[in-house]
Amino acid sequence: MSPRKVDPNLGAQLIEAAARLLSEEGPAALSTRKLAATVGTSTMAVYTHFGGMDDLVRAVVREGFTLLNRRLESVEETDDPVADVVALGWAYRANAREHRHLYNVMFGGSSLSGFSLTDADRQHGRYTLDALVRAVKRCVAAERFLPSDPELVAHQLWIALHGLVTLDLGGYLVEPFTADTCFEAQVCAMVLGAGDDPARARESVARGALRPV
Amino acid sequence: MSPRKVDPNLGAQLIEAAARLLSEEGPAALSTRKLAATVGTSTMAVYTHFGGMDDLVRAVVREGFTLLNRRLESVEETDDPVADVVALGWAYRANAREHRHLYNVMFGGSSLSGFSLTDADRQHGRYTLDALVRAVKRCVAAERFLPSDPELVAHQLWIALHGLVTLDLGGYLVEPFTADTCFEAQVCAMVLGAGDDPARARESVARGALRPV
DNA sequence: CCTAATCAATGACGGCGTTATGTAACGGTG
DNA sequence: CACCGTTACATAACGCCGTCATTGATTAGG
């Protein structure tokens, strides 16, 4: 009654290979045949370990979200919470740049022939905001931000970050309005919009930018 | 020495059909064969009128940009320039919602099997910001915004709008932080970040939201 | 050792973008 | 008028894709 067990490595290998193909050759190169070739198996592996190409992509996306989450969680909390917010922004952006194709797939771009995320996937990605929400709460507690809904403020920051990242990856931010320039201005404006003092805001934005990514 | 003339209608029909397919059935349904079937021709028409599928998509994207531009240009200039900025934001968002698949293709998402925009395409899309830049200049002239680079401020607004739109289209903005809620908060924060007075900002945001889209 | 059960390899199917080849329409030329 | 070079489009093929039914291989329990 106990037949040959499924090789748990194969699923992980497929996800890894898919992420690598996605990163190095773009979404168009992601095919069951290429995957089977690089992993050294047949196309059927995709169907036994996942339901099909869509579900494999979904798994890769989940990997991408945990990657992003780990990156954000690695940002340290200092006694300048506004600088922490800025550092989180840099981390978010750095992660997107390092896994640009993956980021595109994660957030609905790169449709990958009809593939789209489910509500569960999106919900899974939502906890990404946790670190940001915590930082915003600390900004409010430190009376740097006016009292308001920290989740809403985090959403605003997220929206701004996401817009910047996608336009940057799309190649829309060129001299003299590069992504770096716009990032600084954007974060500054958002922090000011949240109620921080202009002078302290500038200082914190500069401090946050100096953090290691 | 004078060969058979190309039917100029066919190219337009192809673009129109492509836009319709894109809108109604998504990027996955956009194929030379479906196009040929709906227009009533063969797949070769795509290659004689455009260089291939990529160039047809490019043409559709250009159509999309002129559509967006027309939408933004139709926003009237009133004596409340901040409200005009807000109205431009609503118009931008309304256009994206009405042509969601097209918007995704325009801005790098929906890779459509390896397709990506050229620098020329992006440059063609850049004049989209003109209306926004003009409105920001008027805000500065009316001393609602602090003196600064209007283009940079317009970029910031654009980035925030784009982030909101793409996250909205991706289904990431759900209760209680819906796209409407975030939009208001986002625009408010950006306007405040640009230097406007809080009370007048709120008033203008409300006024701009009441404009017909 | 046999049997049941499960994974994976093979090959097929339809659909895709693209390309080679055929064909018919057109304007210039006699 | 006929003729011909040129070009637009049709047809069919090629290689690739995702998917799946079939079949062989492999393993654990009896």
TrEMBL record, chains A, B:
Taking every annotated instance into account, which residue ranges of this chain make up the domain HTH tetR-type?
8-68
Q: Which Pfam families match?
A: TetR_C_33 (PF13305), TetR_N (PF00440)
**GO MF, one example:** transcription cis-regulatory region binding
Which residues lie in coiled coils? Answer: none
User: Does this UniProt record's set of keywords contain DNA-binding?
Assistant: yes
> Has the keyword Protein transport been applied to this entry?
no
Instruction: Output the InterPro entries linked to this UniProt entry.
Output: Homeodomain-like_sf, HTH-type_TetR-like_transc_reg, HTH_TetR, MT1864/Rv1816-like_C, Tet_transcr_reg_TetR-rel_C_sf
Q: Which residues bind DNA?
A: 31-50
List the keywords (alphabetical): DNA-binding, Transcription, Transcription regulation
What name does this protein carry? TetR family transcriptional regulator
Species of the source: Kitasatospora phosalacinea
From which lineage does this chain's organism come?
Bacteria, Bacillati, Actinomycetota, Actinomycetes, Kitasatosporales
